[in-house]
Design brief:
- By secondary structure, this protein is an all-beta fold.
- The chain has one domain: Neuraminidase (6 Propeller).
- Helices cover about 0% and strands about 40% of the residues.
- It has a four-stranded antiparallel β-sheet with strand order 5-4-3-22, with no helix packed on it. A four-stranded antiparallel β-sheet has the order 6-7-8-9, with no helix packed on it. A four-stranded antiparallel β-sheet has the order 10-11-12-13, with no helix packed on it.
- A hairpin with a 3-residue loop joins strand 3 and strand 4.
- The protein starts with 6 loop residues before the first helix and ends in a 10-residue tail after the last strand.
Length: about 300
């Protein structure tokens, strides 16, 4: 996700009425610390980490158990958390005009759903980066740009999106290409990127201009959109782009404090973080991990 001006978000937080630079199966076709922040309790409670099997599902190719990232420079990479290595898949050739990638989610079949900053949604192969347009209508429900992630949802999986302007959470039916609003956060949260941990939904929120709201990671009730446990990220600066994914029991934050992306591993339960890589030769603006990914560190 590219960082954009968040001044309008501050007006919302202050109660005003005013409403991010920062499938393997083949070809794609076009689709028809404890405290209280913003009224939300910030604390540490136990979370279920066994929503999926340790391996994330034996029906998935090994490549689909990794994290995929898209860059400001229109590149698609696969990131292996176990070895902290990036493998370039290819360059996107989406018919997006002058717009650039903004966010991304990856489904269990190996398709990356890439949102551009124009609000247009494309399907991209995680095998060769081949791109195809979709018929998704821009601006549904007032959501133009948003963070996004696939999350286990009952017996299937659903594409959840988080409005950049902080309106809350929605789901996109990728068959009908229809967005349905789920709910607001129950307090001011700001722009966020999403990821899933099994059947749980989480967000990585960019800091705003309010000193009391730094960058944060929070659990979200995917049935209501309300925030659950919220953790402040001390010392984490988003910079010119940010993205978010879960793998192996921890979260992987991609952020660019000096216009070059770095990777930070974050343990939500322990509220600890460590820098994995820094000074990358690109700026990551979207990350996607399928529901195939393991929820526990493989042994």
């Amino acid at each position: 996700m590219r960082r954009q001006n968040v001044a309008a978000l501050v007006l919302v937080a202050l109660g005003c009425s005013a409403g991010k630079e920062t499938s393997p199966s083949g070809a794609l076709t076009a689709d028809s610390g404890a405290g209280n922040e913003g009224g939300i309790q910030v604390d540490d409670v136990g979370l279920n980490t066994d929503a999926t099997s340790e391996t994330g599902g034996d029906d998935c190719a090994e490549e689909l158990k990794q994290i995929f990232v898209v860059t400001r420079e229109n590149e698609l990479h696969r990131f292996a958390p176990a070895t902290a290595t990036f493998t370039k898949i290819g360059n996107l050739s989406c018919a997006a005009g002058s717009s650039t990638p903004f966010s991304m989610a990856v489904d269990r079949k190996g398709t990356a759903w890439v949102l551009f900053n124009s609000g247009k949604l494309f399907k991209v192969s995680t095998t060769d980066a081949a791109c195809a347009p979709t018929t998704y209508a821009v601006g549904q429900g007032g959501f133009t740009t948003f963070g996004m992630a696939y999350v286990r949802d009952g017996a299937s999986e659903s594409l959840f999106v988080a409005d950049y302007d902080g309106k809350g959470i929605a789901k996109i039916d990728v068959g009908a290409m229809k967005l349905t609003f789920v709910g607001d956060y129950g307090g001011f949260a700001g722009p966020g990127e999403l990821t899933g941990r099994g059947d749980q939904l989480f967000a990585f929120f960019n800091r705003t201009l309010l000193p009391s709201l730094p960058a944060r990671v929070a659990s979200i009730d995917k049935a209501t959109g309300k925030l659950g446990v919220v953790k402040n990220l001390a010392g984490i600066e988003v910079g010119s782009g940010w993205a978010f994914a879960h793998w192996g029991g921890t979260f992987w934050l991609f952020h660019a404090p000096s216009d070059a992306s770095q990777v930070t591993e974050y343990n939500f339960e322990k509220a600890t973080s460590s820098t994995v890589k820094s000074g990358l030769p690109f700026v990551i603006v979207g990350a996607g991990v399928s529901t195939c990914a393991p929820t526990e560190r493989p042994k």
